[in-house]
Specification:
two-stranded antiparallel ribbon, mainly alpha, 421 residues, 20 helices
Length: 421
């Protein structure tokens, strides 16, 4: 157990110190766990959650085809035409980013909506910094709303056995989707306050022509099939992953038949293989520390700190996750904490779901406090810098801190009232 704990600690320190090489650290650590005999070689393949990896890869490919079709740009143009002034344009674009990110990766959401915000800012001769930061933090917020919205949601679904519809209604109660949407709703006054002095009129813009409607149909089909799969009794473990991969392959086949090979190449290149390798390595590492008894001991320690109170434990998970995720990527954090949370619930003799939801709310929204807390924020700052705008930490804190605490507090109260009492 001591060797496993030391190796795990070194792994986490290196992942924090070497963010660009996290996947290499995770894979290397996984290999060491096997070579040192902590995890038997025969348990490596079963330790990897292939359903999660297949869902991620398939969704990434389909989303790339959807973005390439220009449909998101047309939707953003339509929203701008509904906006009476800049303040409401900021609100609409931010909410739109959130809605899109409930079904599409946060970074991909930012990459397709940020250019719209940049164009609007240039046209109206205002700084794009605040507008793009609002778009970024909104996309981070709603990634936890559905099963396919963010890697952390896919991890939760895979670990807790939750399906697509379970994020909306679960065990006869409103689920985490509504906590996230409540969080999004309370951020609207924050955005309105930030843009209170920008009441300039927004002139109508021409709608971007859609090059191909098939990817939009595919994305909707992906959601519908995941919903239908929710009703299948005793379905195979890889069902959701097969659906996402299958839909993506249909998109590739359609593109090939219509001589859109460039779209296929782009979609394949945009699949985040680094994240897939990172998760595969982490699954093995977590299986290794579980096998060694580390997870159980960590759970016992946290239960002692919590003093046996479910509410205190829930509060520690939510706000502790906010603090950690402000500086640490939430993917390895959530992947590591899910089995710990399950162990805590078992030690305390309570339902794990209020703790699962608390973990997801804190970890997903916590990344909005700092510019380095989420990949979407880093991507947004990169876009602004390429456009000649330098983003100060104070610029980000001014938006990220009130946005985060408003959304987290709303979700924190909601989940406890619905799931904790």
């Amino acid at each position: 157990m001591l060797i496993a704990l030391i190796l795990f600690f070194i792994t986490y320190v290196l992942m924090i110190a070497l963010p660009k090489q996290r996947y290499l650290v995770a894979v290397g650590s996984a290999i060491l766990f096997v070579l040192l005999g902590i995890l038997p070689l025969a348990e490596v393949i079963p330790a990897i959650n292939w359903n999660v990896l297949m869902m991620l890869a398939g969704t990434m490919g389909t989303v790339s085809l959807f973005i390439d079709s220009k449909m998101p740009n047309r939707m953003a143009d339509w929203l701008l035409n509904l906006s009476p002034n800049i303040m409401w344009a900021a609100v609409f674009l931010s909410l739109f980013a959130g809605i899109v990110s409930a079904f599409i990766d946060n970074v991909a959401t930012v990459l397709m909506i940020a250019p719209v915000g940049l164009a609007l800012a240039k046209k109206l001769k205002i700084s794009p910094v605040s507008l793009l930061i609002c778009i970024s933090v909104s996309s981070n917020l709603q990634g936890a709303a559905t099963l396919v919205g963010d890697t952390t949601s896919i991890l939760l679904g895979g670990y807790a056995g939750m399906d697509f519809l379970d994020f909306f209604f679960f065990q006869g109660r409103f689920s985490i989707f509504w906590a996230v949407e409540l969080g999004a709703l309370v951020t609207v006054p924050v955005i309105m306050y930030l843009f209170r002095s920008h009441r300039q009129k927004v002139d109508p813009v021409p709608l971007t022509p859609v090059e191909n409607y098939f990817p939009t149909i595919l994305l909707l089909a992906n959601v519908v099939l995941l919903i239908l799969a929710s009703f299948l009794p005793n379905k195979p473990e890889l069902t959701n992953g097969i659906i996402c991969i299958g839909v993506c392959l249909v998109g590739f086949l359609h593109a090939a038949l219509h001589h859109r090979t460039a779209s296929i190449r782009q979609a394949i290149s945009e699949i985040d293989y680094v994240t897939l390798l990172l998760l595969a390595g982490l699954f093995v590492v977590i299986a290794g520390i579980t096998e060694a008894g580390v997870i159980e001991e960590i759970s016992k320690l946290i239960v002692k700190v919590g003093g046996g109170s479910v509410f205190l434990m829930y509060s520690l998970l939510v706000w502790g996750s906010v603090l950690v995720s402000a500086f640490v990527d939430n993917i390895p954090y959530v992947a590591t904490m899910l089995p710990v949370v399950a162990g805590i619930a078992q030690q305390m003799g309570c339902s794990p779901y209020v703790l699962y939801f608390g973990l997801l709310i804190g970890a997903t929204l916590g990344g909005n406090i700092t510019p380095i807390g989420a990949s979407a924020n880093i991507a947004t700052i990169g876009i602004l810098r390429r456009d000649g705008c330098e983003v100060k930490n104070s610029d980000f804190f001014r938006i990220g801190i009130p946005f985060t605490f408003a959304a987290v507090f709303a979700g924190y109260v909601y989940c406890w009232l619905v799931w904790g009492i």
